[in-house]
Specification:
Largest interface: A-B, 25 and 25 residues
Largest sheet of chain A: 3 strands, antiparallel
Oligomer: homodimer
Low-confidence stretches of chain A: 1-17, 19-25
Structural class of chain A: alpha+beta
Helix content of chain A: 40-55%
Radius of gyration of chain A: 14 Å
Distance between the termini of chain A: 13 Å
Number of helices of chain A: 6
Order of helices and strands of chain A: HHEHHEEHH
Shape of chain A: globular
Strand order of the largest sheet of chain A: 1-3-2
CATH class of chain A: Mainly Alpha
CATH topology of chain A: Arc Repressor Mutant, subunit A
CATH superfamily of chain A: Winged helix-like DNA-binding domain superfamily/Winged helix DNA-binding domain
Chain lengths: 115, 115
DNA sequence: CTGTATCCTTTTAGATACTG
DNA sequence: CAGTATCTAAAAGGATACAG
């Protein structure tokens, strides 16, 4: 949730999830589902999407989500290596929750002044 | 989420939130909203609802939620003191999210074998 | 580009004992 | 009944450096 860790960087302006995550914790996992919901993305894409997450933490989260079968990792036979992550069917099950959180995030900002 | 902390006690059987919380973290706050959504409850009620949370942690969570205006604390003029907690309008805003998580929790258990 | 390895800080949680 | 006080541990996050 909120500044559980004051060092967490500010999320991108256009992600309405944030106001909600100020109350319902563990930001990164839900944010990753949110961005992967827009389609497969590469490691570096996610880094930019998430606005400041360290490679260490992103890697930790992705491994954890992979282990839980929420996402799949696919390494492309390119040089240098490119890796694409995408939601599994199980991962997509979380989208209604993400949607509800997103809507709430908007509402909290609009009607309750949560920034 | 899941056994982030292996010492976290198992939640009550009839709380479908758990399978979902195995993926989307910080259990206690969302669970408290879930139970308070059923009406005002006392400290001891919540302790039982939450199945094994320590008084210290419950107290911590309630103070935190109070500070964020998600709940209100009302001390009754009885002896011994009784204290009733309830959701504020802001706290009630979270119910759609809780509902979505609850539905997902059921689905994860029924269709994906998440326990 | 996609990570892993270290090292360190903050948050959450748990056990236990004790109090008005 | 409803907490507070300690002390400890685990999880998550962050900074930075380095590697295939």
């Amino acid at each position: 949730m909120t500044p559980r860790n004051p060092r967490r960087p500010a999320p991108p302006e256009d992600c309405p999830l944030d106001a909600c995550l100020k109350f319902l914790s563990s930001a990164w996992t839900t944010r990753i589902v949110w961005f992967l919901g827009m389609g497969p993305r590469r490691f570096g894409d996610l880094r930019r999407d998430l606005g400041g997450i360290s490679t260490k933490v992103l890697s930790d989260r992705l491994r954890s989500m992979e282990k839980k079968s929420m996402i799949v990792r696919r390494a492309l036979p390119t040089t240098p290596t490119q890796v694409e992550y995408s939601l599994t069917p199980l991962g997509r099950e979380f989208e209604p929750v993400i949607t509800a959180m997103t809507k709430l995030g908007d509402k909290l900002r609009d009607e309750h002044g949560v920034r």
